[in-house]
DNA sequence: AGGGTCGCGTAGACACTGTCTACTCGCTGG
DNA sequence: CCAGCGAGTAGACAGTGTCTACGCGACCCT
């Protein structure tokens, strides 16, 4: 019987995920050992196996929480009214903001070597993890289309998404700060302002300049 | 690749890196166990420690090879003559091409959790690994500046780099194919063409349309 | 030539990991 | 009442990275 109650019917299962979410946000994906999670949840190392057939399955469930939270953030700013261009900008800031605030979680979400891959899926638990980004992308392409570029909105949205993702990734790695600011950044430009200029440049590039 | 090593002063050190490069190219970063590398090099598991104080140091040396090869590719296409816009396009294709052909290596190069971080460096072996991208970025910003955008070339180049990096990353993850093509892609657009459209869109966005 | 030293690599131990399997409880249903 | 089952425990196993002690061969220096 697949218990239909998705809520808190199985307490340990949820507790394990909770512990994992806390752990990944504070210490990053490397801290997500199976035994460590079990330890912090107060159970023995074999207990998680009752709910997750493998370590990756547990990590996938944790990552799913991350996608859910990112989805909430995106949906929040997508609900705001305003000129479509500003909506896309808000989306972009939400995406990059999530990547920088929830560093560890964002890292996990795109570490596909740690997550469940094709063959092995929970199957009954929900859609495949890789498809978690699809609804988010749909929101983006919709807002981009409303900006009314002549080109196909799908391609533009995809390129913009890639740009945001790349900014988040390289910024976290520190390469962009290094490349733009030099080894010793000039004091006039704190990192936050650099990042903002970068984001504006990306938005201008894909959506056209503000006054267009 | 030419192992016509003039010095071969420290044969094992180079051999370990060679083995690592081969391994990461075929099986990805997860296959780069310290003991596995030693095994394939025909030495015991304690031997690498003579040359690399820690596992990460060895992986960093392997990744350095990757940055070197990427640098060669970039330098090759950067040497070609032609309109500046075409030079930037060639650079972009080289970057993404490297990421897709040398998947495992590219993955390793940006897995900073596996690589040496700030404190611990080989120090005498060369510049810090994180700075390996700086000269490559300089080439890009130079070519971008030659395209003569009104804006600051540094910011444009950084945004473009991030875009290329994001395309490479998300394409490898499969998200872009999923987002653009849908679950079952329309037969008219094979993946290669999708990728090309994406790349062109990014170049057009950051450099202005072709006829400008 | 003999003896000490040192680079280079081996081998074992240690703590730790993820997975697998046998086992023990406590509860519930017939 | 007791068989069965869900849920969690505990131990074993192979494998990992790091650390330490130990050989071994070549070299240099009186």
From TrEMBL, chains A, B:
| Secretion signal, residue range per the UniProt entry | none
DNA-binding region per Swiss-Prot/TrEMBL record: 33-52
What Pfam families is this protein classified in?
TetR_C_33, TetR_N
Cite the entry's keywords alphabetically: DNA-binding, Transcription, Transcription regulation
Q: Which InterPro entries match?
A: Homeodomain-like_sf, HTH-type_TetR-like_transc_reg, HTH_TetR, MT1864/Rv1816-like_C, Tet_transcr_reg_TetR-rel_C_sf
In this chain the HTH tetR-type domain maps to 10-70
Q: What is this protein called?
A: TetR family transcriptional regulator
């Amino acid at each position: 019987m697949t218990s239909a109650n998705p809520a808190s019917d199985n307490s340990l299962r949820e507790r394990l995920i909770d512990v994992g979410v806390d752990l990944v946000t504070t210490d990053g994906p490397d801290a997500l050992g199976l035994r460590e999670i079990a330890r912090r949840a107060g159970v023995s190392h074999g207990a998680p196996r009752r709910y997750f057939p493998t370590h990756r399955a547990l990590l996938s469930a944790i990552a799913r929480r991350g996608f859910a939270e990112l989805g909430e953030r995106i949906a929040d700013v997508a609900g705001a009214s305003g000129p479509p261009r500003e909506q896309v900008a808000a989306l972009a800031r939400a995406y990059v903001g999530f990547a920088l605030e929830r560093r560890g979680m964002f890292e996990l979400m795109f570490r596909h070597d740690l997550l469940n891959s094709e063959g092995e899926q929970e199957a009954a638990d929900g859609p495949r993890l890789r498809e978690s980004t699809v609804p988010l992308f749909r929101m983006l392409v919709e807002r981009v289309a409303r900006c009314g570029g002549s080109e196909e909105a799908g391609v533009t949205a995809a390129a913009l998404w890639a740009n945001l993702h790349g900014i988040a990734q390289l910024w976290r790695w520190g390469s962009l700060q290094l490349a733009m600011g030099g080894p010793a950044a000039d004091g006039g430009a704190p990192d936050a302002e650099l990042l903002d200029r970068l984001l504006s440049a990306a938005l201008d590039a894909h959506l056209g300049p503000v006054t267009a």
